[in-house]
Each structure stands twice: as C-alpha cells, then as structure tokens.
Amino acid sequence: MDGVLLLHKPKGMTSHDCVASVRRLLGVKKAGHTGTLDPNVSGVLPICLGKATRIAEFLTGATKTYEGEVTLGAATTTEDADGDIIAARPIERAIARAEIEAVLDSLTGEIEQTPPMYSAVKVGGKKLYEYARAGLEVERPVRRVTIYELKLLDEREQFTGETVSFRFRVTCSKGTYVRTLAVTIGERLGYPAHMSDLVRTASGPFRLEECVTLAELARRAADGTAASLIIPIERALFHLPKYQINDKVAEKVKNGALLRLPAFFEQVDGPIVLVSPEREALALYVKHPTRPGLMKPLKVFGS
Questions:
Q1: pTM attached to this predicted model
Q2: Which pLDDT score is estimated for 117?
Q3: Which CATH class is domain 64-203?
C-alpha cells in the first residue's frame, strides 16, 4: 500500500497513536502523518503509507481549514478546554455581532503569533510542553502566519451571558495555532478566552467528508477492501506540475538518472512529478543546481 489514507481522527487520541493504529490495521511498516492534531481536536489527518512517506514534507505545508468555538469569560493554561482556568471575568455587557466580525476582520491576513507553552515547539532543545509541565515559562519565538479567511458561523446579532461562546471557520497557513487565535479574539473583545472546540475540516485539497474513521478502516481491513481507500501518490501531489514520460525513460528514472529539462518547465522553481504512461507517479525531479538544461531526482518512488 503506497499512498495516502485520509483518517477522520477522533478526539481523545494523539496523532501518533492514530498512525500506530493504521499501521497495525493495514499491516504496513512505514506510515506517518502530515501535520499533528492535538488529542482534543478531531478531523482530517492525512497519513502517508509506504513509498508515500517520501512525500510527507510536500503535504505538511498545505493550507488547513478548521471549524471551532471560542468561549469568552475564562482563559486556561493550555488555551483550550483541557487546561486549568488561570483568569476569569464574567461578560457584563451584550457583545454585538458587528464587534466580533470587526475583530475577525482585523486578524485576517499576515499576523504574528507566540506559540503556547503547551505545544511541541522546541526551545533550547526541549519541547515547550516539557517546560510547562515543570512549571516553567520560557521566552518563545514569535512566528508569522497567514489567516486567509476567518468567518463567524453564529447567526445571532447579540451575544449575552456570563460566558459567551460562538463558532467560527478559519483557513490558515502551516504553523498557525488556532487556540492562540481564539485567545487573541477574546483579548481584542476585552475578555479572557479559550478555544472550547475544534475540528479540522480540510488539509490542502482533502476534505472531512472524504475521511474514514478507525472503526470503518478496521471493517474494511477485515473484509479485504481497505486498499480502495488509499489515495495514489500522484493525486496527493495534485498541486505540483506533472510530466509524462515513456517506459524507456521510466527505467532511467527508477535508477535516479539525470534527464534533460523540458523547455516548458524552465520557469518552474519547485519539483516536477514524473508520471508513467499509466499516470503512476515515479519520482520528483528538480532543476539541476549546477548543470543548466538538466534535472535531477529529488525523490524516487520506484522499488
């Protein structure tokens, strides 16, 4: 099995545990996910199998879409519902829809974020959550991320109550912490806040409705039909240009040979997917850095 499985990750499992379950159910040795989801987050988790583990880096950076919920009135240590409350303030006024939408608009585009202490970002050789569990807070690197869309999904015109929750949808770049975004939304509205729910609904071109649950995967593995769930490598690399070659050249590609760069790829800076006459992805090639007019293999998928 060489390709990508789209798993509907359940809440309560780590991404690592999901990969281990898929490896066991399908009987594959090589498997890896393309972007960690926190244990309390569900949704799209693409898992690369077999030769497709070689393309994981080209899928990890894909744009992600989430639907989540912000709760105003309480901030937590982890910035989500799993943490201990560290600040609380009742909502003493009605918050207008227009006010929330203005805040969401102000956070659309390129923004700066400081990773939460409970995260896997490394500082000084240790993951931030290791410091956090030891009761330590360290200086964290600020990162720039892009929010492509941030939309309110609640139809109310006024939001009232001691705590206020509302749902949103965000499409964002790699490295965005949506729980940190929820905290920032609260801050701009004047209240402590945390992310109370989150589902990843898309990762690149892959949508939640395409995903399979672990329970269904187990059923399909048992009846021998699981292979039909695997997305081939060439489809997973949909976003890269394709170049079809003949069988003679395909043999050279499998051996990692240098090839002449097609004229119509002169302006392409990134990798090119070389596909067989049967449209099977054979390799990723890039321009040769020192030999103009030639391209060299970056990843070869042949056995």
A1: 0.86
A2: 66
A3: alpha beta
